[in-house]
User: Fold this.
Amino acid sequence: MERKIKIGLIGLGTVGSGVFKTLKAFPDIEVTKIAVKNINKKRNIEGLDESILTDNPYEVVNDPEIDIVAELIGGIDPAYDLIVNAIKKGKHIVTANKELLAKKGEDLFNIASEYNKVILYEAAIAGGIPLIMPIKTILAGNKINKIKAILNGTTNYILTKMDVQGASYQDVLDEAQKLGYAETDPTGDVEGFDAAYKITTLATIAFKKRIKFENVYREGITNIRPEDMKAANEMGYKIKLIAFAQIDDNGKADVRVHPMLVPKSKTLAHIDYVTNAVTLSGHPVGDVTLSGPGAGEFPTASSVVGDILSIASEFGKTDYMLPMMRCNHSESAQMLDITETENKYYLSITANNKIGVIGRIGKACEENNISLASIVQKEFGSKNCADITVITELAKEKDMRKVIDIFNRDDSIISVNSLIRVQI
Amino acid sequence: MERKIKIGLIGLGTVGSGVFKTLKAFPDIEVTKIAVKNINKKRNIEGLDESILTDNPYEVVNDPEIDIVAELIGGIDPAYDLIVNAIKKGKHIVTANKELLAKKGEDLFNIASEYNKVILYEAAIAGGIPLIMPIKTILAGNKINKIKAILNGTTNYILTKMDVQGASYQDVLDEAQKLGYAETDPTGDVEGFDAAYKITTLATIAFKKRIKFENVYREGITNIRPEDMKAANEMGYKIKLIAFAQIDDNGKADVRVHPMLVPKSKTLAHIDYVTNAVTLSGHPVGDVTLSGPGAGEFPTASSVVGDILSIASEFGKTDYMLPMMRCNHSESAQMLDITETENKYYLSITANNKIGVIGRIGKACEENNISLASIVQKEFGSKNCADITVITELAKEKDMRKVIDIFNRDDSIISVNSLIRVQI
Assistant:
């Protein structure tokens, strides 16, 4: 490199600090300006010259000296406007902003393309795990048609704890909040928004067709019960919040986030606590699983810095930079609605312990084209009712919903406790 | 791309066929010449114009039209000479040749550098798993200091079968040979040579210091007994052939291939049959595990084609191509000898069922600075002897060898059955 590459950071929270500390090892790269929320905040970052801090992020965006802007604040506003302005001022962009990419990705990549700039975002999906760059470079010979992933550390932590301790969702959430593993308002994580943002962008990259975030089906983990964990375990499964994406030969995509029973023979069943993992299936490669830390100061910094070094390595070249890393997926994928999908299901029912209940469950399923793979009835102590656990064969979501309606109207069925899809 | 990129293949066996078939999907890339061993062999490859076949690989190397040569025959001779000549004729190289890279890598990369050509080799290590390119690009901000890997599918298949079926090494090997999962002469796999070639190159890339193959310690799986599998399982471990590499802060490297007891809490313990996996540890990323198919026609083709597309994407540029993918690790790492290492050990002993044996085992260990983490004695039916299983705390290899000598001389110890290192 002929001269130092100049970096502007927007955001000096957990990720920003990690990026700053990591970049110090690279003498050809210099962080020259950092936008922070509170310029008076006491910071303890070795080697940080506080005179480069500003509380006006447009000072970073407009600085003519800066080559690459790393946006590390998250959210849509003001991140979107900052990135657009930075591109127009001739800067390449590195971002960790999964929400922005999911909601405004197409727009941003079009602007970048118009100004011949690159937007890299390895850190936005699965933190430190190498994922976007491998898909775009060394796996470029593949047609990827399926993704199964654990993309949210908070929910995976909660589910692992529920499994290990037999504790309730609420108890584990309370503990996780005390330890700082879950936010005060945990909605974004536990309702699956975070994972849905990530699978939207990941599926877009992998399938080379734009997935619209509003078409991604989403269910969270708040209704998972310790009893479901126990029943799943006994049948050879673990319950995980799975981000799933599939595209068929006609280019129709099925993208969703919801809890799933994962067979213990699969790697994803063994990804515990805050670890993330992604299984990509494609031809010619087959199945590849990439796992590691999905968040945190240093893992996220690894990806941000990897993106910065990739841009820096090509800097000053006269030719078109990083051709494989460009994003131009203008064609939107046709999307399958959840009601059109086929799945295996785990179903937990509490019923009156009367003759004929099992028969009626079987009949309702049969009349709606649902075959049962297994059915287990356990007496529920002295209450004269029974817990019934069912695993179905592959069935239509539509048919399954009809059956649930029938069960809800059946007097001898006290409650439908859980309906969870099963990974095949 | 302005014109079609022209590819010459050397070898049209399993991998070569996969590469040819996969490249057909890319209209900007054309395979224009293929060197084969037997030009008269009946081939059934769709779209193959047999007039591009030659049995003289130098016709590929010397063809002025060819831009990239993919060497897919393996071994040192004639692969080395072919690659050197191809580079001198101005071609970039893609190779899947792990033995050549391990033994002649330094030499080849120096020649490539001199002629400003690139050698890519993603397929040489862990088949279809994205590994080399991620290390060199998106993980470039990291200091990687440890690698734990399953790099040989044949031995992992044998060990998995021994574990699942309780069968002996020899029985499983016979079956694997019948099914084509093991070669007629299985030495390269079962004695750990294949894994040692791969970890030599992988550690060189990850540590940015050249590892010499002849300094890599190597033990195979031929002495692993079903009894060891069973004992390991009972104590919460799986036995795997692990390729291990570590570098300390002074730059001293410890690189080796040998069986290890892997705790079931680790991902590598769940990598079964022919699947490969690599856990990289570094800062800032932490631990990342990449797993998938380590061999086979299509997975290997995925990596070869990924390398070809990466070179093709930059082709015709006037500037220095793929700067991050270059290899120039001229500094050799200082290497730790196996006798200088510290490990935890699993030890299986058969002893006469006499008073004092356990005491003598304990004393020999204590006098040689070895602490025992656990010791289990089981009576051995009617034979009046006992099976004793020991797991030690971290101990010096030197001390452990002394203790084994003492046991071998002890009249009340019938046999030292196994000594296997334990992954921490």
In short: Chain B touches chain A through 55 residues (CB under 8 Å).
